[in-house]
Design goal:
three-stranded antiparallel sheet, 5 strands, 5 helices, alpha+beta, 104 residues, two-stranded antiparallel sheet
Length: 104
C-alpha cells in the first residue's frame, strides 16, 4: 500500500490520457482536440489543477475515492492481486473505527 497524490495520480498524466482518448488510427478526432493536447504538453510535466481546468473541464482533474466517490488530494492505493483500490482518509478512518469496534 502507498499514498498517491492528485499530482502523481491525475495531473501528471492528463496529457497522455487525453491523447490516448482523442488520438487513434494515426490521427486526432478533430483539430480542437489536437490544439488542446498541444496546450497540455506546453504546460509541462507537472501541470497545476488550474492549468488543466483552463484547457479541459474539471472532470480531468478529479481524483475520486473508490469507496465514497468523493474528490481527494491524496488516496491510499491498496492492491488486491492485480486490482488497485484507492481510498481517501475519511474512508480509511471509517474502516479503522469499524475494525476497532469489531475487535473490542
Amino acid at each position: 500500500m502507498h499514498v498517491v497524490s492528485r499530482q502523481e495520480g491525475v495531473l501528471n498524466v492528463v496529457a497522455k490520457k487525453y491523447k490516448d482518448q482523442q488520438y487513434y488510427q494515426g490521427r486526432w478526432s478533430n483539430k480542437t482536440d489536437e490544439a488542446k493536447y498541444n496546450k497540455l504538453v506546453k504546460v509541462g510535466n507537472t501541470p497545476t489543477k488550474d492549468q488543466i481546468e483552463h484547457i479541459l473541464n474539471h472532470s480531468w482533474t478529479e481524483y475520486l475515492c473508490d469507496e465514497c466517490h468523493k474528490d481527494a488530494d491524496a488516496l491510499v492505493a491498496l492492491r488486491d492481486g492485480k486490482k488497485v483500490i484507492k481510498v481517501c482518509r475519511n474512508c480509511l478512518n471509517s474502516a479503522l473505527k469499524l475494525l476497532n469496534k469489531e475487535i473490542k
